[in-house]
């Protein structure tokens, strides 16, 4: 804050020097008070643009003051108005230190920009007050706009640098266009105001303030609507993702469901045929599962399925897949895995199931699992599933609680694709 206070102090010294060197013109206290209030109002009426942040209407008040009162009085008015306005940040919860630092910085920048631009306007023969447009006046107005913009952006860049922040692009087309329009509006406002009687000029000023306020309100409403649209879009995206997740997830176990498993199998077959990759598919079934539901309740059966699913997930690699295929049946995809390695994984899964305890239902309740395993050898999805299913039933017929391998048939040898 000390640096910003020193900057404001330096700008006040410059203003005092300019007041001593340049005739400030006749001083009307009511005019000074009126423009001070008008400047505060214009600064407060900000238009919030979604891509460019807050855009203030202060340029209109600043340069209308130059065109009516001259650059010296206008610079004092706007320096003090910009100093006072940030105090309202306290209402938004900002600290007094931050509010004062903003006031000092804004006061210095606005005072110097208005002073520099206004003095150039006078030097080029710009009339005060401006009562009509001429070529000389338009050239002076254009020069005032350019000089004020350069001074303001240079000081703003320095202030941002002192705070370790990056400033906006001073050549941003939107900001430049809006600033030029502000000077034009200030000139039009001044010319019209100077040709009206006192009563009509007061009414005109009031209508002008209402228009600025409406633009500011429109900006706030637009931002609220855009925030609402973003929130609704984000919520819709989340709900869509949730629905998508529900369509491929089994509610009871949290595993992928049969539909997802069939889609994933088709994708894996396509990759295997295209890139020559190997993979294995297994179908597993919990042995005597109906007896668990009949003898210990369906709650026990549901809990058994949940614990089995958790055991599978802890044993498998991230690239492999397990899904609940229906009831107590599960399907596995072992990506880029040969039959021998897949068999070792299935044996590990079978042992993990055997270790599961359900003592809260019965200490005698034991789980076991039979597995049918098949390696891809050019099959279609249904052929590969049928081979794994036949191997599963062979495991059941051989006494259960085991892994049974399926051998490829002649008609399922790898197909040759052109």
Mind explaining what this structure looks like?
The chain is of the alpha+beta class. It folds into two domains: about 1-230, Arp2/3 complex 21 kDa subunit ARPC3 (Orthogonal Bundle), CATH 1.10.1760; about 260-410, 2-Layer Sandwich (Alpha-Beta Plaits), CATH 3.30.70. It has 13 helices and seven strands. The protein has helices spanning about 1-20, 30-45, 60-70, 70-85, 95-125, 135-160, 175-195, 200-245, 260-275, 290-295, 300-315, 340-355, 380-395; strands at about 45-50, 55, 280-285, 320-325, 330-335, 370-375, 405. The strands form two sheets. The chain has a five-stranded mixed sheet, with helices on both faces. A two-stranded antiparallel ribbon has the order 1-2. The longest helix is centred in the middle third of the chain and has 50 residues, at about 200-245. The radius of gyration is 39 Å and the shape is rod-shaped. It is an enzyme of class 2 (transferase). Its cofactor is Mg(2+). Its EC number is 2.7.7.65.
């Amino acid at each position: 804050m000390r640096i910003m206070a020193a900057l404001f102090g330096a700008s006040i010294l410059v203003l005092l020097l300019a007041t001593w060197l340049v005739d400030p013109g006749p001083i009307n206290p009511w005019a000074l008070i009126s423009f001070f209030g008008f400047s505060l109002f214009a600064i407060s009426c900000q238009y919030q643009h979604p891509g460019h942040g807050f855009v203030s209407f202060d340029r209109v008040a600043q340069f209308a003051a130059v065109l009516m009162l001259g650059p010296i009085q206008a610079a004092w008015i706007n320096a003090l108005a910009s100093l006072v306005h940030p105090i309202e940040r306290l209402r938004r919860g900002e600290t007094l230190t931050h509010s004062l630092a903003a006031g000092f910085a804004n006061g210095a920048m606005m005072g110097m920009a208005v002073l520099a631009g206004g003095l150039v306007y006078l030097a080029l023969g710009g009339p005060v007050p401006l009562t009509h447009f001429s070529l000389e006046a338009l050239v002076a107005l254009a020069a005032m706009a350019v000089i004020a913009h350069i001074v303001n952006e240079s000081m703003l860049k320095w202030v941002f640098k002192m705070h370790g922040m990056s400033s906006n692009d001073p050549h941003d087309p939107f900001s430049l266009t809006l600033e030029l329009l502000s000077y034009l509006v200030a000139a039009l406002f001044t010319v019209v105001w100077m040709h009206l009687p006192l009563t009509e000029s007061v009414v005109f000023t009031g209508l002008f303030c209402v228009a600025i306020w409406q633009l500011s309100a429109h900006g706030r409403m637009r931002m609220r609507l855009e925030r609402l649209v973003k929130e609704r879009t984000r919520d819709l995206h989340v709900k869509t993702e949730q629905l998508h997740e529900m369509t491929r997830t089994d509610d009871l176990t949290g595993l992928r469901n049969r539909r997802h498993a069939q889609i994933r199998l088709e994708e894996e077959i396509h990759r295997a045929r295209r890139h020559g990759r190997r993979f294995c598919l297994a179908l597993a079934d919990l042995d005597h599962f109906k007896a668990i539901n009949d003898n210990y309740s369906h709650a026990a059966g549901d809990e058994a399925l949940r614990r089995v699913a958790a055991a599978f997930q802890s044993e498998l690699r991230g690239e492999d897949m397990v899904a609940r295929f229906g009831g107590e049946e599960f399907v596995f995809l072992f990506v880029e895995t040969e039959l021998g390695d897949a068999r070792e994984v299935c044996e590990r899964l079978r042992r993990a199931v055997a270790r599961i305890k359900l003592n809260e239902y019965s200490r005698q309740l034991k789980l076991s699992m039979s597995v049918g395993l098949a390696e891809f050898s050019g099959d279609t999805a249904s052929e590969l599933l049928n081979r794994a299913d036949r191997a599963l039933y062979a495991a059941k017929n051989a006494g259960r609680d085991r892994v049974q391998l399926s051998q490829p048939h002649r008609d399922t040898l790898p197909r040759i694709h052109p």
